[in-house]
Amino acid sequence: MLKKMCVACFMSLLLVLLLTGCGGNKSGTPARAAGPPAEQKEALPAVSNQPTEWKSDGKISDNEYASHQTIGDLEVYTRLAGDSVMFGLMANTEGYLALGIDPEGDLKDVDMIMCAIKDGNAVAGDMCSGGKHSSHPADTDSGGKMDLTDISGSRKDLTAVFEFKRKLDTGDSRDEVLKTGENKVIWAVGISSDFPKPHSKRGAGTLVLQSN
Question: Domain DOMON, which positions (predicted)?
């Protein structure tokens, strides 16, 4: 009888230990350290069919533009106002960025817009490329005129932002006419702020201008 009672007591004690666990962790589950939060990519500025007042200050604000599209390495913001188009260009580059209007798609006589930050100031060039491997002289050096206005820009780390305005049809023989709808373009970024320096990356795409 005593032997049976000892066996029963041992089984009861074993059952209690199994139910409560050994080692003092009441949950029975090891605690896990919280991992670092997932890295969040900074959101791009929003656009609106009814944009707010446009201000050329080198900053692309939410709802300041009516349209946004990514063309290669460039984030391109646009809005139409009468016979003019306002641009906001953004890219991660240590040097210049460039957008060329190339309606024939043959890299000949491309209407080039180049922007950079030099000595802390935003500069922009209204240029024309004579071919794939040619230089890009300023329109003012080849019988044309400067047709970019309200130029501004800023840089934060590697992100460069530029804003400017130009007419859809400048009347300049060195410029291409921009139209509502699709416009063939090329783009480039450089490692230098000097426009004549070679680009580090380039490509082609389509700029779509939408009427508000």
Answer: 72-190
The dihedral of CA 99, 100, 101, 107: what is its sign? negative
CA–CA dist 13, 77 (Å, integer):
74
User: pTM here?
Assistant: 0.79
Q: 85, 96, 70, 90: which is closest to 175 by C-alpha? A: 85
Closest CA to 206 of 181, 177, 176, 188: 181
Cα separation, 103 vs 21, whole angstroms: 76
Q: For residue 47, name the pLDDT band (cuts at 50, 70, 90).
A: very high
User: Which residues is 165 bridged to in the sheet?
Assistant: 86, 149
Mean pLDDT of all residues in 185-195: 94
> ∠175-46-123 over CA atoms, to 5°?
40
Confidence of residue 39 (pLDDT cuts 50, 70, 90): very low
C-alpha span between 132 and 199 (Å, rounded): 12
Domains for the chain: give ranges and CATH numbers. 67-209 (2.60.40.1210)
| Sequence-ordered list of residues with C-beta below 8 angstroms from that of 17, at least 6 positions apart, any chain | none
Rounded to the nearest angstrom, the gap between the alpha carbon of residue 122 and the centroid of all alpha carbons in its chain is 18
